[in-house]
Amino acid sequence: MTVNVSANRLIAMLDVLGLSKRINSSEGLVNTFKDYVEIIAHSRSEICREIPSGEPNNSPLDPAFEIFESVEFVFDNIVLVSKSLELVDVCRFICGVSNIMQYFAIQEMPLRGATALGDYLHGGNGSVFLSTAFKRLSAAEASQDWSGCFLLPEAENLVKSTLRTTVTLEPNQSFPLIQFNVPLKTGTVDALCINWVFGMSSQHLQELMVFMSCDASKYENTFRFVQAIGELPIRRFHLPSEFLPAVYATASHIGPGTSFRFWNADLQPERFGCTHFVFNSNKVESGQPFIGYDVEEELSKRMKARHWK
Fold it and tell me: pLDDT tens-digit profile of 90-107?
């Protein structure tokens, strides 16, 4: 048997809250199975990999675009493993965990878990996998009383060191990490947490909170986290007309990368109306760092008209 050893990896273990309650009848088992299969398939094909500009979502998977080294779904547990501890892979891992948590929250399958640093071993066929961090991750996950994910001390120190920032000096809504008092079943712990809230529509957040209302403490603690994210500052850029129906954009910077989200006039997530866009960081202070276009000729004309060099 081939054993693949991945030393020094960021490892997240996430638990789907309330999944066991969905399958306490034959009908619930079948319906949950169908939903879960679709959610996992979507997660693997679109959330756990980066889609380069111009590449169709149904194109063959290329390992170069995989965000995680390993993604495992076992009953109501999800295990995500970083490719390395290099800056780009740490950033991709953090954003990937955030996106997975947000997608499951939208599907009313909120996640709870923790991230640690450890070695990861798996068989060639992916049927067996173990980690030095699993015991600590399992204990940390079970100790919490909300939907959320925090970094254990060694992972927090590694991430802060890799990003070369305390990430707490100027927190904002769009940053994928936030320092927060994590609600435990007994007490709290101050830790760096994954921000899975930013980018969700108000409708999806309301639906999630209604779903969680059957557990008063988890509901209240999760609601406090959602409120805390919403109270943070955020900078929105007003978009040119070619982006309609999107009216605003936000830019989130982590490490070497920048991710963008687009919003309608009511500040709800929206698709932008052009095929391509460019972002010029030198135009941020002017408030007009975006140009959208469908063909290269439009880009050239708009750059000239808007005095881009």
Answer: 999 999 999 999 999 999
Would you state the pLDDT for residue 63?
Answer: 57
Q: What CA–CA distance (Å, rounded) separates 112 from 100?
A: 11
The answer to whether the CB of 117 falls within 8 A of the CB of 133 is yes
For residue 182, what are the β-bridge partners?
Answer: 189
φ/ψ of residue 156, rounded to 5: -60, -45
User: Under a CB-based contact definition with an 8 Å cutoff, are residues 212 and 222 in contact?
Assistant: yes
pLDDT score of 132 more than 50: yes
Sort residue 69 into left (φ over 0), alpha (ψ -120 to 50) or beta: alpha
Nearest to 186 by CA among 142, 140, 143: 143
> How far is Cα 25 from Cα 204, in angstroms, rounded to an integer?
27
Residue with tokens 């866009």: 277
Q: 117 pairs with which residues across the strands?
A: 10
* Residue-wise pLDDT tens digits, 31-68: 999 999 999 999 998 888 765 443 444 444 555 568 99
Q: What is the 3-state secondary structure (H, E, C) of 83-147?
A: CCCCHHHHHHHHHHHHHHHHHHHHCCCCEEEEEEEEEEEEECCCCCEEECCHHHHHHHHHCECCC
> What are the tens digits of pLDDT across the range 205-258?
999 999 999 999 999 999 999 999 999 999 899 999 999 999 999 988 787 778
Give dist(CA 263, CA 272) in Å, integer. 8
Q: Tens of pLDDT along 6-15?
A: 889 999 999 9
